[in-house]
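A further point concerns the way the authors explain their paired sequence and structure data. Each protein is reduced to its one-letter sequence and a matching series of backbone shape codes. An entry of this sort, consisting of the sequence and the corresponding backbone structure tokens, reads as follows:
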Amino acid sequence: MRPRSMRHRSMRPLRPPPVLDSAHIRCATWPSLLLSFVNRTFVWWTGWLRTDRREGACVAATSQEAISAADAGVRRAIPAPRRRAVRPREEELRRTAVRLFREHGYDGTSMQDLAEALGMHRGSLYHYIESKEDLLFGIVEAAMARFNDEVRPILESDAPPRERLERAVAAHLVIAAQEPDELTLLQVEVKALAPERRYRIVAERDAYEHAWRAFIREGMRNGAFGCEDERSAGFMILASCNWFSQWYRADGPLGVEDFAARFSALFLAALRADAGPRPREA
């Protein structure tokens, strides 16, 4: 058995995401950025799905049980935990956990690491949490709740499809820009949660994805969108918006609103009704 001081470092740290600096963003053409999205987000998104599928049917992103929970309304299917006021020291602990989990990975971060980063004794941490998993669950649950609370109502509103898409994309990018590390943990560390908690997060995520697909499907029915299937279109939109958190820089030449307008224009062009589905080759 390896020494105790080394066991919590056994997992490889998360590889830092690629960085596109301001000069790159300013000089790059939109076709090259779109190609970057296709290459990078496909690997990112499919990796997320594969992780869930390895965990079994109860947490698979495409499992019938999860989709049923989304259709019925995940808020009714899974009772939400009772919220309480967060004390300043708890918020400092949460921010520190986000940083360390992002830099070293969940399994590569120990309670001792957290205590040292906060200048506390390890035993004092248990005054705020029962386990390290409590921290991870609270982080990813809060991140997922923002998407369902702030973006889903836009998708499910009665506004015209174009307006809903523009507002929903903008709202998603705002969250991705404000909480990039939390979004990364939501995508890559959910597998570290216990099965019951993992199912809750995956069901919440499926409900969010389902809201996007239902919105696109509605647009296909009323003639607003001409894409071939809502599932692929939803992956295109969500993968691009999620990857935004990996390369966006607040000090760059374009702000979140600028990118939201450009993303929406690209998505609307891809979904436009007059394009229609391409004929299949014989």
